[in-house]
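Annotated sample (chain length 415).
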Amino acid sequence: MAETLEIPLKDLREWLERETVQIVEPLKTEGKRFLNDVKDKLDDVLEACDKLSEGAEREITKGSRKTYRRAKVLAKLARSFSEMIDKVTVPDEVSRENLHVLCEGLGKTLDTIGRERWKWFPVISPYFIIDRRRFDIALKRAMDSFKEMRSFSSDEYAKKAKTVEDAFSMIDKLLQTLGELDETKKQMKKTELGKGFLEKKIAENQRKITSIQSKSEVIELDQINQRIEELEKKVKHNLRYLQKPFIKFQSLARGTSYSLPLDEAKKLSEYLSNPLEAFVTEPEGYPTLKSILRRMEDVITQGKLKLKGSRLRKAKDQIDSVLKDSLVSLHQSCKETFSQRQQLSASGIITETSSELTQLQQDLKDLQKQKELVDSRSAVLKEKIETTVKKIEEQKKGLEKAVLELTGKNVQVVL
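Output written by the structure step:
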């Protein structure tokens, strides 16, 4: 098995140039010969165009009726041919790309000149025969030289030099991809630093929130709020069979067939929207609720409030229960609990900590959103790094294979 050479990527181009010089140099020498020949032949065409222009100008000056119009056409044609050829740039360096561009451009130019010559020379005939023949000879030689160069470019040079040029191109692409990987890693490092900073800020923020929430006053307030939630459920439960009747009674009171005092109408709306708030703001014995229930009981008896059998029975039972002071104990608990919350909330410590806690919780949300964005960017960069690493490995293997085909040597590219 042939020995494996380890060559750093930064030194590979120079090493490969030395190894392929016997392939490339003869081809470049031959290509240079073709380029020079094409350039010489185009110069001959330009010289022939100058002769056409000179001959045409002489006849135009004479003003002969026989040749004047033909001389004008020839002068314009010669000028057009010269301008087209002047636009063709013959490169100094031989490469597959240079040869391809020249063949494409020059081929189109010569085809156009050939068509124009075929179209207008018969119009000029039989005059300017010597100048036209000199031009035809120069154009024919230029076309022959172009064909030889195109054959060399598409056959001999393409087959032998293409692999060499591709290998150098693969080196450039691999270097470019390595640069992209390095840049992505820098972005990843910067992102991770930002992520670490945010995580520290979040942890610090959470510690402050925990510290505030662990204060006895805050704990007590939290316990009171939990009791209020439980009381809210109890109030709703004890008024559950009155919700539908309340809605129907409110609808009836808004019409013209029944009149409800304004304060009771307002309280009825409160019992529908927020039963606990309505209940706890009642004076002792909840007189407004009782008054509403008595009025509702009357309209039920009068048949103005239509309810289904089971719903009607349950509503009557609950009305009767409330009117018999079944909610006195619950009402007292609600008022006491709300009073405790009001007293505690009014204390300086709660006012201060509540404001600080609100700000900390908002800051925490903002920090967590920022971290989500950073996490998302980090995931994108991580995926990009993995994809780029795979691409580098593929490019490296392809380059090593190309070098083996060119030189017959096993080379391991060191990145």
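Annotation: The longest helix spans residues 129-213.
Annotation: The mean pLDDT is 87.
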